[in-house]
Design goal:
Number of strands: 5
CATH topology: Rossmann fold
Structural class: alpha/beta
Number of domains: 1
CATH class: Alpha Beta
Radius of gyration: 16 Å
Number of helices: 5
Strand content: 15-25%
Amino acid sequence: MFGKILVAVDGSEHAYKALDVAADLAEKYGASLLVLHVIVKHAIPPYFEGLAVEKAEQIFKTLGTEVAEKIFAECEARVRDRSLKSMETAVAEGEPARAITDHANNEAVDLIAMGTRGLSGLQDVVIGSVAHRVNILSQCPVITVK
């Protein structure tokens, strides 16, 4: 039923619970697990340009990569004792919902697992949650975990 399961992680407790559910399903179905972290690309107004903007973007990307590595280490520790076919990690950049669904489409994922709440806070109330947008945009089933 599921050959490849993507789990989106942001370091929140809900994301780690989604990882646990995704790992259970991956074990049950003999699926591979793809753990994805999205680095949110900070919008710098177009009237700012030059070396300062390039440096700021480079700093955001470096920090995002360091955070991803810490999150992946926690994920690997949580699934260490499981009998998974395989587990890969990946980092994407951009608006989280679009980055998650684009990655899922590019990787021919059969299921996306994610937490119902992440670290984005008030933005979820104003704009709509990432999980909700992934449900709308996804071409494959999405399971959300509380």
